[in-house]
Automatic annotation (TrEMBL):
Transmembrane segments: 41-63, 122-145, 180-203, 250-275, 395-417, 429-448, 469-488, 508-531, 543-563, 631-653
Keywords from the UniProt entry: Calcium, Calcium channel, Calcium transport, Endosome, Glycoprotein, Ion channel, Ion transport, Lysosome, Membrane, Repeat, Transmembrane, Transmembrane helix, Transport, Voltage-gated channel
Domain Ion transport: 55-278, 397-656
UniProt KW Phosphoprotein keyword: no
Name the record gives this protein: Two pore channel protein 2
Compartment list: Late endosome membrane; Lysosome membrane
Database matches in InterPro entries: Ion_trans_dom (IPR005821), TPC2 (IPR028798), Volt_channel_dom_sf (IPR027359)
Gene Ontology BP annotations: calcium-mediated signaling; endocytosis involved in viral entry into host cell
Catalytic function, reaction form: Na(+)(in) = Na(+)(out); Ca(2+)(in) = Ca(2+)(out)
Principal location class: membrane
Family to which this protein belongs: Belongs to the calcium channel alpha-1 subunit (TC 1.A.1.11) family. Two pore calcium channel subfamily.
Length: 708
């Protein structure tokens, strides 16, 4: 009876509120057993197991043949990699598939059969599992000797479908594609026209000495297109124009016009369009998230208003404060929000809450996360009060920054003076002595700040935690140096002892000192704004990073299968191209294409560049198979550099502009820190859903029957 119904309503309200907190859909079964299963599925342990399973199945690419378990990626020097026996990684993969089958089964049951066919992601989930299992069976039947494994390309889908924000981001990107396609088409027209002009300008002549431009870059249509496409990325600039420029300076006008129109106008126009369109689609996505939250809260109100505690003769639905308190005690939510809601509820003088009052209570979820720092200690001694005032004053922090700058300058002076000296001629006394002095000052500064602010207040500031941690590390390293090599003195060049030489220890200390100089960032408002913008992107835009991982992974696996055995390393007569095709090596290849510039390429990858250059030369040579390889690399460039980098720039601009506007309208409060999520970035421009929209959506719920 009544008690069982009341318990069901309470449990439904708990789940609906948790759905609202996590922006989840409420279109799922709401009977007692299903609610228990639903909460179990979204519990931390289950979600942790699912995330771990996704991580494991993605990491299998580094273990499977060709294995990436080698110290160096240079195929000339590395030992043969360990390849797991047939059935080992396949067994791990099967366990992962079992977890995914349980996952999709639970999801399908909870939303119901009718909703299942409307959910394209779940249908795609099942199809991906079927294809993967089929490919797994085929792989075992060939004793793991097959080269093409379709299921490896499909693995990123498991990461994609598990994140609602990634799915929304992908949907937003898909909606932005028509607008981006117009600019990409304009780029293609620009490229095609200049390709025709180039083939006419640099046509073959009777004088072979003047055909260097034609031989090197514009021999035929594919080569001409490739040369100008690479020039669009500035990777072959100015190499592509040198032969023609050497013959006649006027030819440079052609390359300048191509670069100016392509890079300065069309590429920046693409950035502007992506920023404008993608921001609008992302705003719609966040608007739908807000609607889900309001719908979940309203659904909780409706089921709680069905409790027998509510007065029968009420004109409007109401919820008792006691029932809401019972629900809040069982809801899993942030303690700050829960305490704020319960505090507001206790301050409310009424015993019954209307729908508007109920919704207003949960607006606490939409507010900035405010972190207030603990108070400073109160000293009775007048001397301690003066010390507290002096050490807590901003000028004391400025003094610390000046000392840190002096430390950096002294290190630079010593490094410049010792740059050309042999290790046997170098005297580490001066550098060791100044390091000792400055580290003692850093320790004294940290202790005085703790004295002035108190330990809890000191640790509540991220800049102080950063500063204090590096000071402790520097102190430990300095003590270890003195314990092994003694105190600094003239001619301080002891023999190698322990794990690191004296010079290595001094270098390590200096690296941390240089890194510690970043403490000045919070004191420079504009720099602090830029850094906090970047940190917010790292914290809140994980969905974009996830999609980038999906793109990298899919292209890496595809490249391994397409270009297996395509490379013979320079200086090695053995055909070991098979060993080159590891996922880690191909990640390096993709990174090389991403950085593009030759100087960066050599700096980042050292002696490894010879193999990658050879790989590119072989892949992009004149034979038919390698010509098709250009499509692969151009597609990668379009997705990663053209589309994805511009998307990141668009979101970086949006985040920065938003923070700048808030900085201009908010007065600085030293004891309060504001933390925002990506949903709250657009909070000021979102529209609240009307009651009619909420009730219309609730009445369409496939599993919930409201009393009215």
């Amino acid at each position: 009876g009544t008690r069982a119904d009341n318990d069901l309503y309470i449990n439904q309200a708990i789940v609906f509120i948790e759905d609202a907190i996590q922006y989840r859909s409420i279109n799922h079964r709401v009977d007692s057993k299903s609610l228990w299963l639903y909460r179990w599925y979204y519990s931390r342990i289950c979600q942790w197991i699912l995330s771990l399973t996704i991580t494991i199945i993605l990491a299998l690419a580094f273990l499977e043949k060709p294995s990436s378990l080698t110290i160096t990626s240079d195929v000339r020097y590395r030992l043969p990699a360990w390849n797991p026996p047939c059935g080992l990684t396949e067994s791990i993969e099967l366990l992962c598939f079992l977890v995914f089958m349980i996952d999709v089964s639970v999801k399908s049951y909870l939303i119901g059969w009718e909703e299942f066919w409307k959910n394209k992601w779940l249908v795609a989930y099942i199809l991906t599992l079927i294809v993967s299992l089929t490919d797994w069976i085929v792989s075992l039947s060939f004793f793991c000797t097959e080269n093409v494994r379709i299921r490896r390309i499909l693995r990123p889908f498991f990461l994609l479908q598990n994140s609602s924000m990634m799915k929304k981001t992908l949907k937003s990107i898909n909606s932005t594609l028509p607008e981006m396609a117009s600019v990409v088409l304009l780029l293609a027209v620009h490229l095609s026209l200049f390709t025709m002009f180039a083939m006419l300008l640099f046509a073959r002549t009777k004088d072979g000495q003047q055909d260097k431009e034609w031989v090197g870059y514009f021999r035929n249509l594919p080569d001409s297109l490739t040369s100008l496409l690479v020039l669009l990325t500035t990777a072959n600039n100015p190499d592509v124009m040198i032969p023609a420029y050497s013959m006649n300076r006027a030819y440079s006008i052609f390359f300048i016009l191509f670069t100016v129109l392509g890079n300065l106008f069309l590429m920046n126009l693409l950035t502007a369009i992506i920023y404008n369109q993608f921001r609008g689609y992302l705003l719609k996505s966040v608007q739908s998230s807000l609607f889900r939250r309001r719908l979940g809260i309203r659904a909780a109100f409706e089921v709680l208003s069905s409790l027998r505690e509510a007065p029968a003769n009420a004109q409007q639905s109401h919820v008792s404060t006691g029932a809401l308190l019972r629900v809040l005690q069982k809801v899993e939510m942030d303690s700050r929000c829960k305490q704020a809601i319960m505090r507001s509820l206790k301050m409310c003088s009424c015993d019954q809450l209307s729908a508007a009052q109920f919704q207003k209570l949960f607006e606490e979820l939409d507010k900035d996360a405010i972190k207030q720092h603990p108070p400073s200690p109160e000293y009775q001694s007048r001397f301690m009060q003066k010390m507290q005032f002096a050490c807590g004053h901003p000028y004391f922090g400025y003094l610390g920054n000046v000392v840190a700058l002096a430390n950096i300058v002294s290190i630079c002076v010593v490094l410049v003076m010792d740059a050309d000296k042999q290790p046997s001629e170098r005297d580490d006394f001066f550098l060791g002595a100044i390091n000792c002095f400055f580290i003692l000052y850093y320790l004294l500064e940290m202790l005085l700040k703790i004295l002035a602010m108190g330990l809890k207040r000191y640790l509540s500031y991220p800049s102080n935690r950063f500063d204090g941690l590096l000071t402790v590390i520097l102190l430990v390293l300095e003590i270890a140096t003195f314990a092994v090599y003694g105190f600094p003195h003239r001619g301080w060049r002891p023999e190698f002892m322990g794990l690191l030489s004296l010079w290595d220890m001094v270098r390590l200390v200096n690296m941390f000192i240089v890194f510690r100089f970043l403490r000045i960032i919070p004191n420079m408002k504009f720099m602090a704004l830029v850094v906090t913008t970047l940190l917010d992107l790292v914290k809140n835009l994980r969905a974009f990073a996830g999609i980038l991982v999906v793109v990298f992974y899919a292209f890496a696996i595809t490249g391994i299968m397409l270009f297996k055995g395509a490379v013979v390393p320079l200086g090695n007569t053995r055909y070991i191209g098979n060993k080159l095709n590891t996922s880690w090596l191909f990640f390096n290849l993709l990174l090389v294409l991403y950085f593009k510039e030759k100087c960066d390429f050599i700096t980042l990858f050292g002696h490894f560049q010879a193999e990658v250059i050879q790989c590119l030369l072989r892949l992009l040579s004149v034979n038919l198979i390698c010509r098709w390889a250009k499509i692969y690399f151009v597609t990668w460039w379009l997705i990663s550099s053209v589309i994805w980098v511009n998307l990141f720039v668009a979101l970086l601009l949006e985040n920065f502009i938003h923070k700048w506007d808030r900085r201009c309208h908010r007065e600085p409060l030293s004891d309060i820190e504001y933390q925002r999520t990506v949903e709250l970035m657009f909070r000021d421009v979102l529209e609240e859903p009307t009651e009619e929209e909420l009730m219309e959506k609730l009445l369409q719920h496939p599993h919930l029957q409201l009393c009215r």
